[in-house]
Amino acid sequence: MALTLSTKAQAVKPSSTLSITAKAKELKEKGIDVVGFGAGEPDFNTPENICEAAIEAINQGFTKYTPASGTLELKKAVCDKFYNFNGLQYNPDQIVISNGGKHSLTNIFQAILNPGDEVIIPVPYWLSYPEIVKLADGVPVFVRAEKEQDYKVTAEQIDAACTSNTKALIINSPNNPSGMIYTREELEAIAEVVVKRDIYVVSDEIYENLIYGDNKPVSIASLGEEIYKRTITCSGLAKSYSMTGWRIGYTASSKEIAKVMGSVQSHQTSNPNSIAQKAALEALTGPQASVKEMNKEFNARREYMYERISNMKYISALKPQGAFYLFVDIHEILEKEYKGSTIKDANHLAKILIEDFNVAVIPCTDFGFSDHIRLSYAISLEQIKKGLDRIEEFTNQLV
Ligand code: GLU
């Protein structure tokens, strides 16, 4: 047997959101004044009460293994969150606490997929979905949502994409990268298809606390008994509580699926980090004022950024309703010339912006849209202003 590597693992593309962010941080450390519109990582410190709960956990020796699928107290707090915030009733044996949102998604697809099962992924999508599905031997099936449909797929499109191999659909609302939110009516129509086709829906609600204006979050699982049975909701603490590095995510599903996920997790990570679980408990049960404060700030940045982008030449975006991204349509730029040559795609544009203008953006090729880029507004207003000035300087140089 030759010293080969796993074909499946080698086929995985590294996460470009993380690599671009790392590159921007590296340049900053070298003293280069880079503005990083990269990863969706809030610039706020984790709220103090949450940090203190973690310190307390360490001081009290809460540093050993916990139950594989998480502590009962944290599962109860997650159940209360679902009840109070989403109008959903779950028992602790339906909850699995994991090491972050990505890990929850990994658990879900490990638990439900058999080789060759198809998973419908609406485009644009967060770049990790297809890779996580493929790692669980599933086959991603992409369904494109155009700008004219607010980047949201319709129930008819989902229905048309279903085959006898379809196992699940992923819904991500508020959406990364588009910032769009599905309305109750849209979700009701999608739920009807999911029930009719008898498939699962994986509802990624990680941005549910980051919603602006009159928009309301709706959990698809709350739309009836039949859809509740088929929904696996996943979320995490990273975005709402500025806890990206702590790595705590969770799922709510049927007891049967939770049991399988718990068993898988018991062999993969033993348990989610004990200290981070105590911090997560404080995040969910402690004062929520910091969440509101952060939201207010994100909203101000959203308004500013949308306004500026709307007034720039050759680029445009829909006003995001949630999350903290602006999904910028650059197709007109692709018809222009910069320094004597045309710009090929979003990757090429991102390269020019970082190399010539010290601005890091996410090209959305890996999100299914090679004529869009994503700008995160999880950075300070001052940085946003500086970065947008530079992007404007670039658009003004196009001929
Ligand atoms: N989910 C965030 C993003 O899309 C964090 C980076 C990542 O995990 O992809 O930027």
CATH superfamily of the largest domain: Type I PLP-dependent aspartate aminotransferase-like (Major domain)
Query: What's the story with the biggest beta sheet?
Result: 7 strands, mixed
Helix content: 40-55%
Q: Please count the helical segments.
A: 14
Report the uncertain regions. none
Give the helix/strand class: alpha/beta
How many domains?
A: 2
> Under CATH, the topology of the largest domain is which?
Aspartate Aminotransferase, domain 2
The coarse overall form would be globular
Q: What's the CATH class of the largest domain, please?
A: Alpha Beta
Order of helices and strands: HHEHHEHEHEHEHEHEEHHHEEEEHEEEH
Alpha carbon gyration radius: 21 Å
Mean pLDDT: 96
The total strand number stands at 15
Widest beta sheet: strand line-up = 2-8-7-6-5-3-4
**What small-molecule ligands were found?**
glutamic acid
Percentage beta strand: 15-25%
What is the first-to-last residue Cα distance?
A: 57 Å
